[in-house]
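Invent a record, attention on tokens:
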Amino acid sequence: MTKSQLIECIAEKAPHVHPRRIEAIVNAVFEQMTQALKEGGRIELRGFGCFGLKSRRARVGRNPKTGAPVALPRRLGVLFAAGKELRERINRVQAPPERRAHAPARVPFSSVLGPSELTSHPGAWGGGSVNLTDPEVGRTFQSVGATGRNTG
């Protein structure tokens, strides 16, 4: 999500506030967060996460083109640690999307054939795909090569 998308989303939820005013508020929030980090502080947003700084030591690096040593100064990096509530909301199990009836299911070779049959299977390493029919279910499964893409 970009900053402009964030502003548009907030504008949809608060139609009584002018979008220019929302942009000013968002910019003010980001500016305050930047200033707090610049001063060495920590930002804690309950239920969302914490922002903090990590000092990276000065070191000697290498120029990738010439291989010559280059002195890299000490620098600060921004860290973000997601809060418990955010992690739980992201990791909630959602129902998988329903498959269309006419689309064949994609099954990797390893789940159809055992590990010993995988190397002797004609399409196993050649990247081809094979249609397999399960007589019990009456469905055709299209197998997928080692790359995980349907190549047939």
Observations:
- Residues 19-38 form the longest helix (20 residues).
